Amino acid sequence: MPLIRQPYLKDPLIKNLPGININNSTISSLVRKSVYLQTMSEKPAINFNLKKELLESFLIFLIGIPWGYLMCLTCENKIYSIIISGTFWVTLWKGNQFLSAVLDLKVSWVKTPLLRAFIGIIGHSLITFVLVTVIFEVTALFGITISNYKTTVLIAIGITLVMTLILYARQFLLAWRQAAIDSERMQKEIMTAKFETLKNQVNPHFLFNSLNTLTNLVFENQNTAAKFIKKLSEVYRYVLEVKDKELVKLKEEMNFVRSYVFLQQIRHEDALFINENLLGLEESSNIMIPPLTLQLLTENAIKHNVLSSESPLTIDIYIKDERIIVENNLQIKNTINENNTGVGIENIKSRYKYLSSDAIEITKDQNTFSVSLPLIKK
Protein backbone atom coordinates (compact mmCIF):
# COMPACT_ATOMS: atom_id res chain seq x y z
CA MET A 1 0.00 0.00 0.00
CA PRO A 2 1.63 3.27 -1.05
CA LEU A 3 2.09 6.01 1.48
CA ILE A 4 -0.41 8.84 1.38
CA ARG A 5 1.21 11.99 0.13
CA GLN A 6 -0.11 15.38 1.20
CA PRO A 7 -0.59 17.50 -1.95
CA TYR A 8 -2.60 20.06 -0.03
CA LEU A 9 0.42 20.82 2.18
CA LYS A 10 2.72 21.38 -0.80
CA ASP A 11 0.29 23.34 -2.97
CA PRO A 12 1.34 27.02 -2.86
CA LEU A 13 -2.22 28.10 -3.65
CA ILE A 14 -3.41 26.49 -0.42
CA LYS A 15 -0.43 27.48 1.72
CA ASN A 16 -0.76 31.15 0.71
CA LEU A 17 -4.51 31.52 1.19
CA PRO A 18 -5.28 34.30 3.69
CA GLY A 19 -6.33 33.02 7.10
CA ILE A 20 -4.93 29.52 6.63
CA ASN A 21 -2.23 28.59 9.11
CA ILE A 22 -0.53 25.26 8.45
CA ASN A 23 0.80 24.36 11.89
CA ASN A 24 1.63 21.03 13.51
CA SER A 25 -1.91 20.60 14.83
CA THR A 26 -3.40 21.24 11.40
CA ILE A 27 -0.96 18.81 9.79
CA SER A 28 -1.79 16.05 12.27
CA SER A 29 -5.52 16.59 11.77
CA LEU A 30 -5.28 16.55 7.97
CA VAL A 31 -3.10 13.45 7.93
CA ARG A 32 -5.36 11.55 10.34
CA LYS A 33 -8.41 12.39 8.20
CA SER A 34 -6.57 11.32 5.05
CA VAL A 35 -5.49 8.00 6.57
CA TYR A 36 -8.97 7.43 8.00
CA LEU A 37 -10.68 8.08 4.65
CA GLN A 38 -8.28 5.80 2.81
CA THR A 39 -8.74 3.08 5.44
CA MET A 40 -12.52 3.36 5.19
CA SER A 41 -12.33 3.04 1.40
CA GLU A 42 -10.24 -0.10 1.74
CA LYS A 43 -12.67 -2.23 3.76
CA PRO A 44 -12.06 -5.90 3.09
CA ALA A 45 -14.29 -7.55 0.53
CA ILE A 46 -15.46 -11.17 0.49
CA ASN A 47 -13.18 -13.00 -1.92
CA PHE A 48 -14.53 -16.24 -3.34
CA ASN A 49 -12.19 -18.80 -4.88
CA LEU A 50 -14.11 -21.90 -6.00
CA LYS A 51 -11.08 -24.18 -6.18
CA LYS A 52 -9.90 -23.15 -2.72
CA GLU A 53 -13.39 -23.50 -1.21
CA LEU A 54 -13.85 -26.99 -2.66
CA LEU A 55 -10.46 -28.11 -1.36
CA GLU A 56 -11.15 -26.72 2.12
CA SER A 57 -14.62 -28.30 2.17
CA PHE A 58 -13.15 -31.69 1.26
CA LEU A 59 -10.56 -31.46 4.03
CA ILE A 60 -13.22 -30.38 6.55
CA PHE A 61 -15.39 -33.31 5.44
CA LEU A 62 -12.49 -35.68 6.14
CA ILE A 63 -12.15 -34.18 9.62
CA GLY A 64 -15.83 -34.94 10.23
CA ILE A 65 -15.55 -38.65 9.30
CA PRO A 66 -14.31 -39.84 12.75
CA TRP A 67 -17.27 -38.07 14.35
CA GLY A 68 -19.56 -40.14 12.11
CA TYR A 69 -18.51 -43.29 13.92
CA LEU A 70 -19.07 -41.69 17.33
CA MET A 71 -22.55 -40.57 16.34
CA CYS A 72 -23.73 -44.14 15.77
CA LEU A 73 -21.41 -46.76 17.22
CA THR A 74 -24.04 -49.54 16.99
CA CYS A 75 -25.15 -48.77 13.43
CA GLU A 76 -24.59 -51.54 10.90
CA ASN A 77 -24.39 -49.14 7.98
CA LYS A 78 -22.22 -46.24 9.05
CA ILE A 79 -22.19 -44.55 5.65
CA TYR A 80 -25.20 -42.41 6.58
CA SER A 81 -23.67 -41.26 9.85
CA ILE A 82 -20.40 -40.45 8.06
CA ILE A 83 -22.21 -38.41 5.39
CA ILE A 84 -24.31 -36.58 7.96
CA SER A 85 -21.28 -35.87 10.17
CA GLY A 86 -19.20 -34.59 7.25
CA THR A 87 -22.11 -32.44 6.11
CA PHE A 88 -22.43 -31.02 9.61
CA TRP A 89 -18.77 -30.05 9.66
CA VAL A 90 -18.73 -28.50 6.19
CA THR A 91 -21.99 -26.55 6.48
CA LEU A 92 -21.36 -25.30 10.00
CA TRP A 93 -17.72 -24.41 9.33
CA LYS A 94 -18.32 -22.68 6.01
CA GLY A 95 -21.61 -21.14 7.11
CA ASN A 96 -20.04 -19.56 10.19
CA GLN A 97 -17.02 -18.50 8.16
CA PHE A 98 -19.23 -16.72 5.65
CA LEU A 99 -21.25 -15.06 8.41
CA SER A 100 -18.06 -13.88 10.08
CA ALA A 101 -16.80 -12.38 6.80
CA VAL A 102 -20.09 -10.52 6.31
CA LEU A 103 -20.01 -9.15 9.87
CA ASP A 104 -16.44 -7.94 9.36
CA LEU A 105 -17.70 -5.70 6.56
CA LYS A 106 -20.36 -4.17 8.80
CA VAL A 107 -18.91 -4.05 12.33
CA SER A 108 -15.28 -3.28 13.22
CA TRP A 109 -13.40 -5.41 15.74
CA VAL A 110 -11.13 -2.47 16.59
CA LYS A 111 -13.77 0.25 17.04
CA THR A 112 -16.58 -1.79 18.64
CA PRO A 113 -15.17 -5.13 19.85
CA LEU A 114 -17.98 -5.85 22.36
CA LEU A 115 -20.71 -5.15 19.81
CA ARG A 116 -18.88 -7.26 17.23
CA ALA A 117 -18.56 -10.17 19.68
CA PHE A 118 -22.23 -9.92 20.77
CA ILE A 119 -23.58 -9.81 17.22
CA GLY A 120 -21.23 -12.63 16.26
CA ILE A 121 -22.41 -14.90 19.07
CA ILE A 122 -26.07 -14.28 18.23
CA GLY A 123 -25.41 -14.76 14.52
CA HIS A 124 -23.42 -17.97 14.95
CA SER A 125 -26.08 -19.39 17.28
CA LEU A 126 -28.84 -18.64 14.77
CA ILE A 127 -26.98 -20.02 11.79
CA THR A 128 -26.11 -23.17 13.75
CA PHE A 129 -29.78 -23.68 14.68
CA VAL A 130 -30.92 -23.12 11.10
CA LEU A 131 -28.32 -25.44 9.55
CA VAL A 132 -28.93 -28.23 12.08
CA THR A 133 -32.69 -27.97 11.49
CA VAL A 134 -32.25 -28.05 7.71
CA ILE A 135 -29.95 -31.08 7.87
CA PHE A 136 -32.38 -32.99 10.09
CA GLU A 137 -35.29 -32.14 7.79
CA VAL A 138 -33.35 -33.29 4.73
CA THR A 139 -32.34 -36.58 6.39
CA ALA A 140 -35.96 -37.16 7.43
CA LEU A 141 -37.11 -36.41 3.88
CA PHE A 142 -34.91 -39.24 2.58
CA GLY A 143 -36.00 -41.58 5.35
CA ILE A 144 -32.67 -41.54 7.20
CA THR A 145 -33.04 -41.73 10.95
CA ILE A 146 -30.50 -40.51 13.46
CA SER A 147 -30.58 -42.70 16.52
CA ASN A 148 -28.52 -40.43 18.80
CA TYR A 149 -30.16 -37.03 18.35
CA LYS A 150 -28.72 -35.35 21.47
CA THR A 151 -25.17 -36.41 20.66
CA THR A 152 -25.55 -35.05 17.15
CA VAL A 153 -26.77 -31.68 18.41
CA LEU A 154 -23.97 -31.48 20.98
CA ILE A 155 -21.43 -32.25 18.26
CA ALA A 156 -22.93 -29.48 16.11
CA ILE A 157 -22.68 -27.02 18.99
CA GLY A 158 -19.11 -28.13 19.65
CA ILE A 159 -18.19 -27.60 16.00
CA THR A 160 -19.68 -24.10 16.13
CA LEU A 161 -17.82 -23.20 19.32
CA VAL A 162 -14.49 -24.41 17.93
CA MET A 163 -15.07 -22.60 14.65
CA THR A 164 -16.17 -19.41 16.42
CA LEU A 165 -13.11 -19.36 18.68
CA ILE A 166 -10.76 -19.92 15.73
CA LEU A 167 -12.42 -17.24 13.61
CA TYR A 168 -12.61 -14.72 16.45
CA ALA A 169 -8.97 -15.18 17.38
CA ARG A 170 -7.88 -14.86 13.74
CA GLN A 171 -10.07 -11.84 13.00
CA PHE A 172 -9.12 -10.00 16.17
CA LEU A 173 -5.40 -10.52 15.52
CA LEU A 174 -5.77 -9.38 11.90
CA ALA A 175 -7.74 -6.31 12.98
CA TRP A 176 -5.18 -5.49 15.68
CA ARG A 177 -2.33 -5.90 13.18
CA GLN A 178 -4.05 -3.63 10.65
CA ALA A 179 -4.67 -1.02 13.35
CA ALA A 180 -0.97 -1.09 14.25
CA ILE A 181 -0.02 -0.70 10.57
CA ASP A 182 -2.44 2.22 10.14
CA SER A 183 -1.11 3.87 13.29
CA GLU A 184 2.50 3.56 12.13
CA ARG A 185 1.59 4.83 8.68
CA MET A 186 -0.19 7.79 10.25
CA GLN A 187 2.82 8.65 12.41
CA LYS A 188 5.09 8.45 9.39
CA GLU A 189 2.83 10.71 7.36
CA ILE A 190 2.63 13.25 10.18
CA MET A 191 6.41 13.24 10.42
CA THR A 192 6.78 13.63 6.64
CA ALA A 193 4.26 16.45 6.51
CA LYS A 194 5.97 18.29 9.38
CA PHE A 195 9.32 17.88 7.62
CA GLU A 196 7.92 19.30 4.38
CA THR A 197 6.36 22.23 6.23
CA LEU A 198 9.60 22.91 8.08
CA LYS A 199 11.57 23.05 4.82
CA ASN A 200 8.98 25.40 3.34
CA GLN A 201 9.36 27.68 6.36
CA VAL A 202 13.16 27.69 6.48
CA ASN A 203 14.20 27.71 2.84
CA PRO A 204 12.76 31.11 1.77
CA HIS A 205 14.56 32.93 4.61
CA PHE A 206 17.82 31.16 3.93
CA LEU A 207 17.57 31.81 0.18
CA PHE A 208 16.75 35.49 0.72
CA ASN A 209 19.77 35.99 3.00
CA SER A 210 22.03 34.04 0.65
CA LEU A 211 21.01 36.12 -2.37
CA ASN A 212 21.67 39.33 -0.44
CA THR A 213 25.15 38.08 0.45
CA LEU A 214 25.76 36.99 -3.14
CA THR A 215 24.76 40.42 -4.45
CA ASN A 216 27.56 42.02 -2.46
CA LEU A 217 30.08 39.29 -3.35
CA VAL A 218 29.59 39.70 -7.09
CA PHE A 219 31.05 43.21 -6.92
CA GLU A 220 33.63 42.60 -4.19
CA ASN A 221 35.15 39.17 -4.96
CA GLN A 222 34.08 37.29 -8.07
CA ASN A 223 36.07 34.13 -7.22
CA THR A 224 34.39 33.85 -3.83
CA ALA A 225 31.06 34.63 -5.49
CA ALA A 226 31.56 31.72 -7.91
CA LYS A 227 32.37 29.38 -5.02
CA PHE A 228 29.37 30.73 -3.10
CA ILE A 229 27.06 29.93 -6.03
CA LYS A 230 28.51 26.41 -6.25
CA LYS A 231 27.95 25.76 -2.54
CA LEU A 232 24.45 27.22 -2.70
CA SER A 233 23.58 24.87 -5.57
CA GLU A 234 25.00 21.93 -3.57
CA VAL A 235 22.79 22.83 -0.63
CA TYR A 236 19.59 22.92 -2.66
CA ARG A 237 20.54 19.87 -4.70
CA TYR A 238 20.95 17.93 -1.46
CA VAL A 239 17.58 19.15 -0.14
CA LEU A 240 15.92 17.90 -3.34
CA GLU A 241 17.76 14.57 -3.28
CA VAL A 242 16.81 13.69 0.30
CA LYS A 243 13.23 14.97 0.34
CA ASP A 244 11.81 11.41 0.19
CA LYS A 245 14.46 9.71 2.34
CA GLU A 246 14.13 8.82 6.00
CA LEU A 247 17.87 8.30 6.53
CA VAL A 248 21.08 9.28 4.75
CA LYS A 249 24.71 8.40 5.33
CA LEU A 250 26.50 10.53 7.90
CA LYS A 251 29.14 11.42 5.31
CA GLU A 252 26.51 12.84 2.94
CA GLU A 253 24.97 14.89 5.74
CA MET A 254 28.35 16.27 6.81
CA ASN A 255 29.23 17.28 3.24
CA PHE A 256 25.92 19.12 3.11
CA VAL A 257 26.58 20.81 6.46
CA ARG A 258 30.02 21.97 5.27
CA SER A 259 28.44 23.60 2.22
CA TYR A 260 25.78 25.21 4.40
CA VAL A 261 28.35 26.43 6.94
CA PHE A 262 30.49 27.92 4.15
CA LEU A 263 27.54 30.07 3.07
CA GLN A 264 26.90 31.18 6.64
CA GLN A 265 30.56 32.00 7.29
CA ILE A 266 30.71 34.16 4.18
CA ARG A 267 27.75 36.08 5.54
CA HIS A 268 28.87 36.32 9.19
CA GLU A 269 32.66 36.24 8.58
CA ASP A 270 34.65 35.91 11.83
CA ALA A 271 31.51 35.94 13.98
CA LEU A 272 30.94 32.23 13.34
CA PHE A 273 33.22 29.23 13.90
CA ILE A 274 32.49 25.54 13.36
CA ASN A 275 34.58 22.71 14.82
CA GLU A 276 33.99 19.08 13.92
CA ASN A 277 35.52 15.87 15.23
CA LEU A 278 33.60 12.76 14.23
CA LEU A 279 36.53 10.37 14.80
CA GLY A 280 36.31 9.04 11.26
CA LEU A 281 32.75 7.76 11.76
CA GLU A 282 31.51 9.68 8.74
CA GLU A 283 33.55 7.34 6.54
CA SER A 284 31.54 4.36 7.83
CA SER A 285 28.86 3.32 5.36
CA ASN A 286 26.48 2.00 8.03
CA ILE A 287 26.20 5.16 10.17
CA MET A 288 22.97 6.91 9.20
CA ILE A 289 21.20 10.11 10.22
CA PRO A 290 17.85 11.72 9.36
CA PRO A 291 18.46 14.23 6.55
CA LEU A 292 18.97 17.91 7.42
CA THR A 293 19.36 17.08 11.13
CA LEU A 294 22.81 18.62 11.62
CA GLN A 295 21.94 21.56 9.37
CA LEU A 296 18.80 22.29 11.39
CA LEU A 297 20.78 22.25 14.64
CA THR A 298 23.41 24.54 13.13
CA GLU A 299 20.76 26.88 11.80
CA ASN A 300 18.98 26.82 15.16
CA ALA A 301 22.17 27.94 16.93
CA ILE A 302 22.73 30.76 14.43
CA LYS A 303 19.11 31.89 14.60
CA HIS A 304 18.85 32.04 18.40
CA ASN A 305 22.23 33.53 19.31
CA VAL A 306 24.02 36.84 18.87
CA LEU A 307 26.90 36.70 16.37
CA SER A 308 29.64 39.32 16.47
CA SER A 309 33.39 39.58 16.00
CA GLU A 310 33.76 40.41 19.69
CA SER A 311 31.60 37.47 20.81
CA PRO A 312 31.68 34.88 18.04
CA LEU A 313 29.36 31.90 18.01
CA THR A 314 31.21 28.58 18.16
CA ILE A 315 29.46 25.36 17.15
CA ASP A 316 31.11 22.01 17.93
CA ILE A 317 30.07 18.75 16.25
CA TYR A 318 31.70 15.70 17.80
CA ILE A 319 31.27 12.09 18.93
CA LYS A 320 30.87 11.10 22.57
CA ASP A 321 29.60 7.80 24.04
CA GLU A 322 28.25 6.54 20.72
CA ARG A 323 26.28 9.73 20.18
CA ILE A 324 26.67 12.77 17.93
CA ILE A 325 26.86 15.98 19.95
CA VAL A 326 26.07 19.41 18.50
CA GLU A 327 27.05 22.08 21.01
CA ASN A 328 27.29 25.87 20.96
CA ASN A 329 28.08 28.65 23.40
CA LEU A 330 25.02 30.54 24.62
CA GLN A 331 24.54 34.22 23.85
CA ILE A 332 20.79 34.35 23.37
CA LYS A 333 19.22 37.19 21.43
CA ASN A 334 17.02 39.47 23.51
CA THR A 335 14.09 38.96 21.14
CA ILE A 336 14.17 35.17 21.55
CA ASN A 337 12.22 33.33 24.24
CA GLU A 338 14.81 31.41 26.24
CA ASN A 339 12.44 28.48 26.72
CA ASN A 340 11.92 28.15 22.99
CA THR A 341 14.21 25.46 21.52
CA GLY A 342 13.07 26.08 17.95
CA VAL A 343 10.85 24.41 15.37
CA GLY A 344 13.82 22.50 13.97
CA ILE A 345 14.57 20.68 17.22
CA GLU A 346 10.92 19.69 17.67
CA ASN A 347 10.99 18.25 14.18
CA ILE A 348 14.18 16.30 14.95
CA LYS A 349 12.60 14.94 18.14
CA SER A 350 9.60 13.58 16.27
CA ARG A 351 11.75 11.98 13.57
CA TYR A 352 14.09 10.27 16.04
CA LYS A 353 11.09 9.06 18.02
CA TYR A 354 9.93 7.29 14.88
CA LEU A 355 13.33 6.09 13.62
CA SER A 356 15.17 5.11 16.81
CA SER A 357 14.46 3.56 20.18
CA ASP A 358 16.81 6.14 21.74
CA ALA A 359 15.59 9.69 22.17
CA ILE A 360 17.63 12.81 21.58
CA GLU A 361 18.94 14.58 24.68
CA ILE A 362 18.97 18.36 25.14
CA THR A 363 21.25 19.97 27.70
CA LYS A 364 21.27 23.65 28.56
CA ASP A 365 23.16 25.60 31.20
CA GLN A 366 24.28 29.19 31.61
CA ASN A 367 27.08 28.91 29.06
CA THR A 368 26.28 26.15 26.57
CA PHE A 369 23.46 24.49 24.70
CA SER A 370 23.92 20.98 23.33
CA VAL A 371 21.87 18.34 21.55
CA SER A 372 22.89 14.68 21.73
CA LEU A 373 21.78 12.44 18.87
CA PRO A 374 21.87 8.63 19.10
CA LEU A 375 23.81 6.86 16.36
CA ILE A 376 21.63 4.97 13.90
CA LYS A 377 23.37 1.97 12.38
CA LYS A 378 22.06 0.11 9.36
Physical arrangement of strands within the biggest beta sheet: 2-4-5-7-6
What gross morphology would you assign? rod-shaped
How many DSSP E strands? 8
For the terminal residues, how far apart are their CA atoms? Answer: 24 Å
Structural class: alpha+beta
Helix content: 55-70%
CATH class of the largest domain: Alpha Beta
Transmembrane segments: 54-71, 77-93, 114-136, 148-169
Keywords: Kinase, Membrane, Transferase, Transmembrane, Transmembrane helix
Domain Signal transduction histidine kinase internal region: 193-271
InterPro entries: Bact_2-comp_sensor_kinase, Sig_transdc_His_kin_internal
How does this model look, in words?
This is Histidine kinase. The chain has 378 residues and is α+β, with helices and mostly antiparallel strands. It has 3 domains: 7-35, no CATH class; 50-183; 221-377, 2-Layer Sandwich (Heat Shock Protein 90), CATH 3.30.565.10. The chain has 11 helices and 8 strands.
Note the topology.
Blueprint: H1 7-10, H2 12-15, H3 24-40, H4 50-71, H5 79-106, H6 113-141, H7 149-220, H8 222-241, E1 248-249, H9 250-268, E2 272-277, E3 287-289, H10 293-304, E4 313-320, E5 323-329, H11 343-355, E6 361-364, E7 368-374, E8 376-377
Parallel strand pairs: 2-4
Antiparallel strand pairs: 1-3, 3-8, 4-5, 5-7, 6-7
